[in-house]
Records
---
Amino acid sequence: MSASGPASSVPTPLEVGLATIEPTWRIALRVWWSWQWRVLIAGFLLDLFVNFWIGAIGGAVGLHYRGAVVAQQISNVVVFSAVGLYFFKDVLDREFKDFRVCVLPKH
């Protein structure tokens, strides 16, 4: 037995091919929503926190209004990109009620 488990637990390409299902719009919507609601909530909360500190620190150092707006817009892109990528990776190995999303090597 190896550190990652018994070799028999690794599916063969034939087993993967036989177990693969055709993606439908319903499946795509479930996967997208599983990712999207997490990004919206976590991104919004983290963005509020970051923008608060940009405003507080920017005001303390005398940053002009336009500079604060630009800094907040840049932070919005960075925060939502990072949060989106984090949860996208999470969804790639998530198990749903009747299917599982995973990444397989190309053979």
---
Amino acid sequence: MATVAKSSHSNVASIAMAAAAGAAAAATLGFTAQAESTMDVLKGISGQLSSIEEAVVFAPALAKIGSIKKSHPGNLAVKDFDFDYFASLSSADKKALLAIVNSGVQNADSGMGCYAMNPTDYDKFEPFFGAVISDYHGVPRSQHHVTDWKLDGVAGLPADGKLDVTKLGLPPVSMRVRVGRNLADFPLPGAMNKDDRVAMEAKMQIAFVELKKKYGGRYHSLTPGNPDFITDDEYKALVKAHVMFKDMAADTYLSDAGIASDWPFGRGCYQSEDKGFIIWVGEEDHLRIMCMEPKGSLINGVFERLKTALDTVESIEGLKFAHSEKYGYVTSCPTNLGTGMRASVLMKIPKLCKGGSDANAKKVCKPLGLGVRGMGGEHTAIGADGTCDISPTARFCISEAEIVTALYTGIKNLKAAEDSA
């Protein structure tokens, strides 16, 4: 009996354990089913939100892009916007791409129409940017940019190696060579918030301490509360002297790209003691590093000085410039990509600007590989005497040395066109 009782007790215990295990398994299965049901609901909600987003946020922008493709085929950002590629992106990347092209969507008459928002955008959105860059710069999409500052052997360089404008029959002119650079550890200006702008300026002010040791000068900040803050009158005087850049809010292209936001926070300008070396902080790019000569004859002079100044800036500990293995130095606007360089002179061409318009000058300059701007830069008026800012348009897959040589050759051909007009 004892054996029977023990066996019965064991069986009961086994049954109880089995029942408990079964209950636990059932509970687990129930929980899993419930979890799967919840996930299905969440997926359904997410899908509905995506549909709403597509209809409310994306659809109007896409419709406008479709319209501009027909009305303004010269707007490259819109022309090269591929709807199938857009559809393949995640919701977050769709928003990012629309932010990149927003300037061109809001300003249908744009020539370029897009601005990168982050240092990695050119590589991340290569299917879009690759088409735009190839279209604008006229180079194969497979081509990579190579940096080279050496003038030796460049086609068009005079035998003596001197790019002397007086040999072309011009008087000494105002000349400037600059590069755009962006710090790798910040968003590009179009995507920066106020805190980003202030932090980037503060980082550069530490670097300016090193520059002052070599070049002297001072930093002028527009940020309220900054130790180097300048008054409004001081700012206006610097703008008038073409040392500081204007409030960008009036430029709808930059405003719609987000670049002009949070003015004047994070904006300023470093100027060397001799006033020939300037760094803008917080304009279209984080930095615009430039050398100029108000009445110069030798382009080589400002070119070589810029290289020396740039080497000094790049050697400062903690500064790393955004760079793409394929595209070279990263800039906000694809027009500056590669070298980030713009070499220019202020040149009087009154015959080509007859009537106060630069339309004919631009028509003549385009086949010469030259761009025409007003005396205050892009989207500003030319001088009453026909003075225009002239520069080569090529920046990408062309060396820095080739750009300044192209400027020399270009103004030589432009002078011939002006003389025969």
---
Amino acid sequence: MRHTYYLIIIFNILLFLTLGLAYYLQVNAETYSYQSLEFSYSFHLGFTFIFTNIILIVHKKIGQHLGFVFLAQLTLKIILFLFLKKYYVEAAFELPWQTFFVPYLICLITEVSAILYLLSNKEKKQDYGSKKS
């Protein structure tokens, strides 16, 4: 259990640092509205924080289906973002494609690195167990 807490803390620090740095750089570029940046970054941060932490907590129960759960999470994220953009954001402010893809790619890279870490640890444990027998 201690290993899971350590992994969650490392993931969250990495997520907040990378998204914070990217947000800072995009705000200082002054090519996008604050509303669009705040919406996009807060959506991606919140969604990634909640769902990836849930995956990290229950990864032992998910087992070999970890990749499928991750794929469903990414699909749900895109669908929910497009739904919110169409019905809630479109009339309020413009949302350029860069404001979606920069935080999306940063979150994707951090999520994939966490999932790959979990999967590589599972393979190491399985390989070790098979060599012992």
---
Amino acid sequence: MPTYEYACEACGHEFEAFQSITAKPLRSCPECKKRKVQRLISGGAGLLFKGSGFYITDYRSDNYKESAKKEKDAGKPKSESKSDSKPSDSKSSKSKSSGKSKKDAA
């Protein structure tokens, strides 16, 4: 449901009302109780979060998310080159040690 903005022509009080789209506009001012309230035309906010429980980090832009991911990836060491070198080193050291023991035994 949208939030509508209203202004009283009698006392100048401005307020917001959370109403259904099909609801009729309000006419009475909550401050002075006169029937001089007009609904204001606004550009709209699309989606407006008010109150506690919302964090600024919950709704980041795509550009921010992409740059944060690049920074995170830049800080990590490349695991592909390390993982390729470790198994080959361990295999060659095992084969060398097992090869020597067979020659020594024979």
